[in-house]
Amino acid sequence: MKNAKILKIIAVASVLFVVMAILPVQALTSSDETIGVPAGAMTFDELRSIISQSANKDTIENNIEYEVCVETADAWQLPPEIVEKMTKEDLNKLACLPDYFTPNQMSTEGITYNSGGQMLLDETTHVVKTIVIIDEEAYNYYASNEPWFATWEGCCAWANNILEGGDDYLEIPFGIDFQAQSQYYSYWETPDDMDYYDLLDEIDGVDPTGVGCDVIVLMTGQSGGSIVGLANRMGHHFLMNAAASGWPYYIPVANLFQHEASHLYDCSDHGYDQTYCIMSYTYQWQTRGYCTGCTTQINLNCARFD
Prior knowledge:
36% of the residues lie in helices and 11% in strands. It is an alpha/beta fold. It has a single domain, classed as Collagenase (Catalytic Domain), CATH 3.40.390. The protein is globular. It starts with a helix and ends in a 5-residue tail after the last helix.
């Protein structure tokens, strides 16, 4: 009988331990619960205040310090003479998600691009300085895999990887390079009563040119129903569901970024037609190429943010 009581106590303690281990993960992954502003993050309200004051970007303290070191480049087996010339920003660009980049896609003969289609470290013609906003649902999605080690800096690096993967086919052949401005990453607890149109209206009301930036991208984890991204043709900002690669959509987020970004260059949705183009709902998850019409539109407008 004594042994049975001991076993019962152990069983109850085991259940409590499992419940306690699960609760923090649920708190991080629930879209209804707030986790508070991540340490080191600038809030969207603070960002708007900075922009409204037309602050000089050179006087704002950089809130993001990516902890990327030479070991990252070593893992890519890059020659030491190239690593020595790389800046911290260059090294950060190598810390990419395997879904987007693999070592054989990176040229080791000058950090340009090769058959893999990468131009991460290349100079491009049309630089689009981008402010990235991450909402709490997107942060929760990022943190859900490793909640104990989730950091704001890591989430920003994850968002940067989405951007860098998403603009590859705008870099080649159009020379359009979206570049996240690390000092302006911000965190936004997006109101649950706002749909995607409301969210787009909210960021459309912010003009980042006062701090030398061109475009705002909201990476949300909030469900938009059947909508996974939204942008106005020839607009200045767009939003995308950064959690679309998971359930229930399983959409390549690089494709989603490229599709929405293309609207800024006057590319229209083709609907569910048979045009083999990333702007077609039929093929946008299968191809990253453009039809003749979209190629023309992007060429006409590629310099609009210069």
